[in-house]
Amino acid sequence: MLSFQKGSVLPLGSTVSDTGVNFAVYAPYARCVLLCLFDDAGRCEQHRVEMYSHEGGVWSIFVESLVEGALYGYRTDGEYDLSSGLFFNINKLLLDPYAKDFSGDFTWSERHYCHLPVGEFNTLDNAIDMPKSKVVKTTPFGGKKPHTPWQNSFIYECHVKGTTQLHPTMDNTKKGKFAALVEPQFLQHLKHLGVTAIELLPVHAFVSEQFLTTKGLQNYWGYNTLSFFVPHKAYCVDGSVTEFRDMVQQFHDNNIEVIIDVVYNHTAEGGVDGPMLSFKGLHNNGYYRTLSSPESVYINDTGCGNTVNIDDPITLKLVMDSLRYWVEVMGVDGFRFDLATILGRTADGFSSRHSFFQAIHQDPVLSTVKLIAEPWDVGPGGYQLGAFPAPWREWNDKYRDVVRRFWRGDSGTLPELAKRIHGSNDLFEHNQRGPLNSINFLTSHDGYSLADWVSYEHKHNEANGEGNRDGHSENYSFNCGQEGETVDPEILASRYKMQVNALVTLVMSKGVPMIAAGTELNHSQQGNNNAYCQDNEVSWLNWSNTGSQQTLIEPIAQLIRLRNNLSVFEHPFFVHAEDERFSVQWLNKESQDMSESDWHDEDNKTLMYVLADKLKSNAVMVILNADTEQFTITLPPPPFSSCWECVFSSESQSERNVLPISICLTGQSAWVLVSNLEENTND
What we know:
By secondary structure, the chain is of the alpha/beta class. It contains 14 helices and 30 strands.
């Protein structure tokens, strides 16, 4: 027999004890908050109990004899006033913002809306269409984590479902699930590539927007969060949230870190006309940024309808508690923050001293994990690449764009290309950060795949149902002579070679390299550069051609092994002339130091540089030739041996070549030469 009494205000959410369950929720302007308990199927509301009000806006109740697994939700009663942003509606069952699990599926219906049409109070009850929060007992994550240093990191960004959905040798029940990512076939694939960290697109529970479902599409990427604590249930084989933790443990056992892409900038509740699912019905004006007048109008710095109000102390606490949960309970090693500028923006604009950054940096748990920012959003002053504080890393789109432009053959790219290859000191050195603060990438989930970058000059997003108006129009891409698919062997060979050229640039640059899943498989999205709603073969990786010569598995693996043997890429600081150990030398086609005229020669499309470690007496020379013409260069004297050794080239070669004097550079080719390098055989 259940009994009800006043509970504790902390911790928020549901907490299991030996005698029952404590519930606490923040709803400072509600007149009444009700705890609703459901049967095991989640269909019948068996108890509706008024909670106790505490100072500070928290409501609590302790339910004696209630046990783990109980299903529940909240209802709030209070003022309903659109102009004031007060949306209390007792007819809406709300998910607990701190729920660690839920039961049941979300179904779109008009019942979820607070008002239909705008201004008309909606009395329809939505409980039948809502998942029910589930009481769970959590335990700390155990086991040893890899703690891979940034200088040894190689990131593989991937989608949980799309990465394994078409894998030919996996158990069908595991395909597209967390469990599939730690199947031996895929783990071995990652380890062969040299991957040290897998970065998962959103794994927080999410729903598809109604404008997509009405068109028969789904939010495939997952940037539409329903819960900040619950793993996306569709990625679980048996619906158990522990499957995520099991996956993390197996990755750790294979010395691979897990970074998750998190979306704390907006939620699935959308704008004022969006559904009421959780936050909107508890403290709308606190969880979301709104105009000062009228307060019903959301500030939309995300382009998704609402913006989470990180300035509010309780909202900040929610985000911090969620982050700690994913580290301490789920075991993750770091986070990539979507539209991260929002998290550092106050009413006065972005600040690297925002309370969010201060909270992270003083936190004994979160200050020790990997923190990666997507340093832009669509709000005012939204582009903040280079402005984040240490120890944050940042996606470097300037790197991506100039590498693409260089290999496309654009003129005048050398000065910027050299800065990006050197680690972007112009972006990071001003606040005592180094080259390892730059996450270098050629492609990501957002935009073209690497194969499409060399296959399409124009986006082809018709399948998204927006008249090809969505997605970026400028992708710095080219098609090697024919738009889209082809069987022409010369075009295919050219496309392959240009991808290898770009990968040489990526791996032989200072910074932390990242590739998008499918890069190694020559994956095409058919020219779609905004495949966020393509939960189908457009996005799913095709593993059937892994044995094809057109895959990039071996070039990537070879380049990463080579990089791991070069100490110059481990140096955490920018190299200047006075550096006693490391040096960088930029050379022209005559193997002389680059002059001002060389740097600013619009027709110069060849960049050569030598990175040397004087302590270990080895060096690497990288030659990037985007010129279409072939020519011969005389090599500079190698610093630590009698000759240069060619260890990698985008030109076909079966073995290392000793190059004592010169090298014939074929058009549009990349070369890696070493001097006195001994391979590390301990890997």
